[in-house]
Amino acid sequence: MGFDYQSQLKLSQLQVLIAVADCGSFSEAALQLQLSQSAVSYAIATLEEELGILLFMRGRYGAHLTPVGEQIVDRARQILYLMVDIVKQANLAKGLEGGLVRISAFRSAGTNILPRIIAQFCQRYPAIAVSIAEYDDRADVEDDLRKGRADIGITYLPTSHEFEIWELMHDEFVVLFPPSFEPKSTQPSWEDLKVYPLIVPPDGCDCDTMMYAHCAKYGVTLQATYKIRSDTTIVNMVAQGLGTAISPRLAAEPIPEGVQVFSLPVPFFRTISVAILADALLTPAGFALLDLLKSSFVPIRS
């Protein structure tokens, strides 16, 4: 009989078809599917009758696909794959209808990077709540990821192998001079860094450790006069002529009028990255925010 499109194929028939093709016998397929052999035989016979073709050659050595049977099985596999994908996409959509994404970030990233990203995310997924924990430095960010207090972290390289990271942007370390500074050339020298007292964050800041190490490579030892925790306070002290500072640009922004900004004599950058705990099981909402972060920045080229 010819196939009637009104009598739709059943997914159970396709599952049986694939099982028999994979096992090479009706009895083995029955064991795999936990059905009786007669139920498997009936499903295949019904399918062959509805399609009007022979799918298997039966014999004492099992069941073997006919040439047209091989073509039908290939399409059956595609149909079942798409059915699974439909359910997956539906579950993903349901996961984006609510929930919470927790982000931890060092302060300048939280101030200058995340607001634009979160605004886009909330436009796309208005039902998802976002929480942001801000810290002075990356150590607390990475600790939040380790202890499950955050789904996504904004940190900077280098990080440990326990994290999976995606590089977002380079952030240059700049020298901030007070308005009274009169450079002798377009590019200050290492000696110019000693003209004013140096204002830095307290000991223990990873950024400052990186900066000290960079300067030391060129024989420059920096001596701090003031140690101030707040980036904003540091920049405003420079604006008042109390000293100079070396800071990642993001941490210095917004830079007050009159403060003079230069690259270091040998330019230096930190690489800001988004991180998750390796093998972390993110929620659909977490994956959606991670994808948005990764797609919002031009890939870094070395």
TrEMBL record:
Q: Answer yes or no on keyword Membrane.
A: no
Its keywords, alphabetically, are: DNA-binding, Transcription, Transcription regulation
Q: Which domain of life is it from?
A: Bacteria
Entry protein name:
LysR family transcriptional regulator
Q: Which PROSITE patterns match?
A: HTH_LYSR
- Sorted alphabetically, which InterPro entries does this protein's record hold? HTH-type_LysR_regulators (IPR050950), LysR_HTH_N (IPR000847), LysR_subst-bd (IPR005119), WH-like_DNA-bd_sf (IPR036388), WH_DNA-bd_sf (IPR036390)
Could you tell me which species this protein originates from?
Gloeocapsopsis crepidinum LEGE 06123
- Location of the HTH lysR-type domain: 9-66
Entry's family note: Belongs to the LysR transcriptional regulatory family.
